[in-house]
Amino acid sequence: MTEQTLTPEPSAPSAPSAPSAPPGAEATAVPEIAAVPETAPAPKKTRRVLRGVARWTAAVLVCVGVGAGAAMGITAVERTDVPGLATASDGRWDYPELTLPALPEGAPRPWTDGNEGEIHHADLRKLLLPAPKGATVDPGLNGGWTGLDPYLALLAEKDRGEAERYVADSALRHVAARGWTTPDGTTTRVHLLRFASVAFAEDFKDVTTEKISKSDGLPPGVEEAEVDTSVGGIDVPYLSLYAYAEAEPYGPEQTRWAYIQAGDTFGVVTQTRRGGTPTVPFQQTVALQAQLLG
């Protein structure tokens, strides 16, 4: 498969304040998240702490901030230099050619002059990674707007109330998601949450990753996790990227997941498969979704 390159589409001549419905479809309002007045309780600390605190300190991908209020970045080799991503015969999925969506006329892309707030002005749904060739798309996560519930389903039931209350107080604007299952049995879910500002998105990322470091806020069925360093070679400027894998011994299936914070948007890529999740498709999927957000 040839190397994929993100090519920006020409700017749209005009843009509405909210994404319009597809031609011929009845217009629907963007789902809004209802505020919950309660105060979020402190995270529980009864779960097992991940093996080796020093391991977390050494492995978590933390980067230097770029400018006042700017998102954080990661420094590494080009995506084509990442082991397992350089050739088409190493297990990579066949994704369609990716193109950056058009912007409203006069709207800058994140991290460019005139966009100090690091806002993604493009339609959030068009920033979702498409399903690869041969995959079966989840009809409930088909790349459209969703409420918060599909994202909350990524968390254990005991953690959903706290996350819902936090988001309700964090000026969440939109949620979009896509999911699919490939012939090898790997189920992938990609969720994008757009907040009112980069500050809210970054704070949500900090709270989420801190909970993981305390072995809390884990996906359903995951008892213990470890940092997944397989994505360490992904090079997309101005992003924060954290990846985790369910630690052995796990049950019938294994879960890998990654958090991507890019300006005002927080993304989650989750993969599960019976018998273990393969490394190469996870690397590839996270890298391509990061490129779309960057």
Please render the helix and strand layout as text.
Layout: E1 7-8, H1 53-59, E2 99-100, E3 136-145, H2 149-152, H3 157-168, E4 172-181, E5 187-195, H4 198-213, E6 225-227, E7 240-246, E8 253-262, E9 265-274, H5 279-293
Parallel strand pairs: 1-2
Antiparallel strand pairs: 3-4, 4-5, 5-9, 6-7, 7-8, 8-9
Comma- or semicolon-separated keywords:
single chain; 294 residues; alpha+beta; 7-stranded antiparallel sheet; two-stranded parallel sheet; 5 helices
Helix content: 10-25%
Order of strands side by side in the largest beta sheet? 3-4-5-9-8-7-6
Task: Count every helix, treating DSSP H or I runs of 4 or more residues as helices.
Answer: 5
Radius of gyration: 18 Å
Poorly predicted runs: 12-86
Structural class by SSE content: alpha+beta
Question: Could you say which overall geometry the principal axes of the C-alpha atoms support?
Answer: globular
Largest β sheet strand count, sense and barrel closure = 7 strands, antiparallel
Strand residues, percent = 15-25%
Give me the strand/helix succession: EHEEHHEEHEEEEH
Tell me the number of strands.
9
The average pLDDT value, as a whole number, equals 77
Give structural notes:
The radius of gyration is 18 Å and the shape is globular. It is an alpha+beta fold. The longest helix has 16 residues, at 198-213. It starts with 6 loop residues before the first strand and ends with a helix. The chain has helices spanning 53-59, 149-152, 157-168, 198-213, 279-293; strands at 7-8, 99-100, 136-145, 172-181, 187-195, 225-227, 240-246, 253-262, 265-274. It is 18% helix and 21% strand. The strands form 2 sheets. The chain has a 7-stranded antiparallel beta sheet with strand order 3-4-5-9-8-7-6, sandwiched between helices. The chain has a two-stranded parallel ribbon with strand order 1-2.
